[in-house]
Amino acid sequence: MTTSALGTSVAQLSLQEDEGREIKLLNAKEDRYGGVIVELEEAMEPNAFAASLKASMDHWRKQEKNGVWIQLPLKLSSLVDIAVQEGFRYHHAEPDYLMLACWLPSRPDTLPANASHQVGIGAFVINDQREVLVVQEKSGAFGGSGVWKFPTGVVDEGEDICDATIREVKEETGIDAEFVEVLAFRQSHKGFFGKSDLFFVCMLKPLSSEIQKQDTEIEAAKWMPLDEYVNQPFIQKHGQFKQIADICLNKSNSHYSGFSLQSAKSSSGKTNIIYFNGHDMNRQSLD
Amino acid sequence: MTTSALGTSVAQLSLQEDEGREIKLLNAKEDRYGGVIVELEEAMEPNAFAASLKASMDHWRKQEKNGVWIQLPLKLSSLVDIAVQEGFRYHHAEPDYLMLACWLPSRPDTLPANASHQVGIGAFVINDQREVLVVQEKSGAFGGSGVWKFPTGVVDEGEDICDATIREVKEETGIDAEFVEVLAFRQSHKGFFGKSDLFFVCMLKPLSSEIQKQDTEIEAAKWMPLDEYVNQPFIQKHGQFKQIADICLNKSNSHYSGFSLQSAKSSSGKTNIIYFNGHDMNRQSLD
To answer: Which InterPro entries does UniProt cross-reference here (chains A, B) (predicted)?
Structure first.
């Protein structure tokens, strides 16, 4: 919002005063999509917030703004209801704030969606003796089932898939390992809190052999011959597990190329990781 | 919660009555991780909610519950502040509800994180004349830049990557296409709303040729010789774009295997899509 626009509005709004107090517009920043965002940080008295929000909404409607965003920190939870009464809906929340949104135009709402996916990893850690690192979990879907499975875990926000895989293997089994390749990935829907899920099966090369299992979540951990892992009745019976086991078997026979990684700069200068078939790219450059 | 546990608590709580009214515990379901979830749907008077929540929290503490979840629909936004005052934090929100959480034990909080990733796609649609489908966007990072780029878009919650790619190509350009392979993917961090991002570069085979561009977001769309696309100064200058362009070039020379797809049943009976190097898997089975 420019200073002159703000000035104009405050002048207009002084007509609406009812107790001699001037109603201040909320501080807002323009976004790149014709909308505005209000990041409230300081405490505001609920009635003052209600009046300022109402006046600001009139102002933004006159300015033909698209989306209006209000970010309220947890400590200002007393203002949530006021924004909802003014027509806002929830957009997303993190532990320390709630983001509310309101679409002003009469045409359909094109506000971007909330984060849609959880990301998980499964680690195929295989040593030179064709033994694979497996665990039994204490709780969750496999708790008490007796199934030996790959170490798995959730990729944190801000964490690279390759790093998450190394971290989970270390946390659950104490084994140090290095990332080799993404062998496959699975997309599923309606998981935790109704979100979709991407699960990456990653191959790692172990750098140590002595297991020190984590006690809270892991019932048991050991090295198991790959064929014994693959031949578990549970694995053979369930299409998805069998398919992933087959891919791992093929990989262990050296005939399968997954996606290896390489860092690359984005147009904004950030360094990101790209996963792709490095084997085929290298082969190409030798042709 | 069992009926007998509820009965015990109500008896205890009648001691706390102050105006002759019995304080009802909130209805809660057990989760698989030693916690409880309250899904409030009916309107509740704020003071009644505050009293019930306080009594319920005492009850759950005595039961040594772990996490307590409260899901509040948008229409009950007047109760948000009460839950926060009782020690709850936000967990996540969707347009029509807010999920609050509170961790009761003294040991560290192991509540699962909110969805962490946005998922996007870029569509490499190449025809038999080695022409690639490109667009210029009206707004966003490339608006007005003159750069010709692949159609891109966001994968919706609940949508398969392959379907999202076909949908975005159709929406932006009117071209019908079929999914071939994921050629590569990129993970980046601190994107929209601070979330991480997975961006899948997918190859598609066009099934039609006449472009009908979408007018709201797309400035222009056309078929462009692949070499001309790759040789754009912007593409050559930016590491990440150049790397993806090189992968697409290699793929067009038929030397590169990406991840194709196959459906598979999960252990819970859901059908999911697994993406993997189908070329190498087929080669293996022929060996």
So the answer is: NUDIX_hydrolase-like_dom_sf (IPR015797), Nudix_hydrolase6-like (IPR003293), NUDIX_hydrolase_dom (IPR000086), Pre-Nudix (IPR040618)
